[in-house]
Amino acid sequence: MPGSLEPLDLGVQIPYHFRCPISLELMRDPVIVGTGQTYDRSSIESWAATGNTTCPVTRLPLTDFTLIPNHTLRRLIQEWCVANRSYGVERIPTPKQPADPVMVRSLLNQAASESNSRHARLSALRRLRGLARDSDKNRSVISTHNAREVLLAVLFSETNSNSSELNHESLAVLSSFQLSESECLLVSSDPDRISYLISLLSHSSIDVRVNSASLLENVVAGTRSPEHRAEISNRDEIFDRIVGILNYPLTYPRAMKVGIKALFALCLVKQHRHKAVAAGAVEALIDRLPDFEKCDAERALATIELLCRIPQGCTAFASHALIVPLLVKIILKISDRATEYAAGALLSLCSAAERLQREAVAAGVLTQLLLLVQSDCTERAKRKAQMLLKLLRDSWPEQSIRNSDDFACSDVVPF
C-alpha cells in the first residue's frame, strides 16, 4: 500500500495532511470524528476499540464515535496518487462505506413485518445479504440489532410455506453469522425445524443446499446437548446429502468448505459415524483431500482419524490403495494439527492390519516419523508417532532398527 512505502524510496514526500495522525501513513479511508479531526477509519476504530474515549489530537472527549466519511480529502488523496504514479504510488481504491445502523434496523423491520408485500420483504433480505457479505464490520452492525432472531423467525415462519424465496433469502443471510448457544438450542430442539433444513439439503439450487448445510453445522457445533446432536446426526439421509455437497462436481470452493465442516461436526457423534461411512464419506475424503485449503485439510484429516476409530471406517479406508501413501506424505507438510491427525489415522489403520504396516513402511513412514519425534510438533502428535514406531518395529529393515535406537520408541505414553 502506498502509505507503507518510505518517502525516500518513492522519491516523493507524502503531504502531511494526507497522513493519518495516528498511524502517520497515507489514509485510505479518511473519516471525521466529533471534534472535526480526520483520521484513517481503521486507525481510529482501533483507537476506540482499546478503550480510548478522547480525540487523539485534541484530547477532547468523544461522546459519540460516529465516523463521517471525508469524501473531499479522499478524492484529493486519490488525485495525488495518480499524479505521482511515476514514483510507484498506486491509487487508493474508493472504500465501501460500512452499513448505516439506522438503515439496517429499517431493513430488518421491513423483512420481519408480515404486513409488507412479499417483494418488499425479499428486497430487504437481499440488501441485508449483500451488506453481510461485504465486510466483518457490516456483520457486526447487523448483529447488534437482533438480526439472527429476526431471520430465524422468517426462516421457520409457517406463513412462508407458499413463499419459499423468503425462507431461502433469510437462510442465505443467516449463513453469514454464528448462532448463539440459545439460538442453536432453539433450532436443535425442534424436530420440524431440523427436518426442514435437511429437506433443503436436496434442493435444486446448490446455494440453498450449501446455506442449509452451513446452518446445520452451526447448530450441531453450537449445541451442548449430546442428545440433540445425536438426534440430528441420526436423521435419515443427512450424511448422504452432506457427502453429496462435498462431492459437488463443479468448482465451488464454498461447497467444499461447508461440506467438510458439516461432515466433521456430524462425525463427532461417535454412535453414528458408521452412517458417514455408508454414505460414501471415505471415498469423498480421499478424493477431495488434495484440493482442500489448510484449515479445511485439517478438518478433513480430523474426520479421517475419527472414522478410522470405528471398524467400518477402518475397513473402508484400508481397502483404498491411496490412503496410506497419502497420509504418510502429509506428515510434516501442512501443519502441526494435520500431522497429528494423519499420524493418528495411520496408527489406527496399521493397528488393524499387518498389510497396512508394510505399505506404510514402503511409503517411507519411518523417515517421516523419526523426523516428527524430533520436531517442534505437538506432544500428542509425538506420542502417536512413538506408538506407531513401536508398532512398526517388526516391519523395519534391520539397518533401520539399528539406526533408530536413539529415539527411545519404547517409552510411549498412551493418549
Automatic annotation (TrEMBL):
> What is the name listed in the Swiss-Prot or TrEMBL entry for this protein?
Uncharacterized protein
Give the organism the record lists.
Arctium lappa
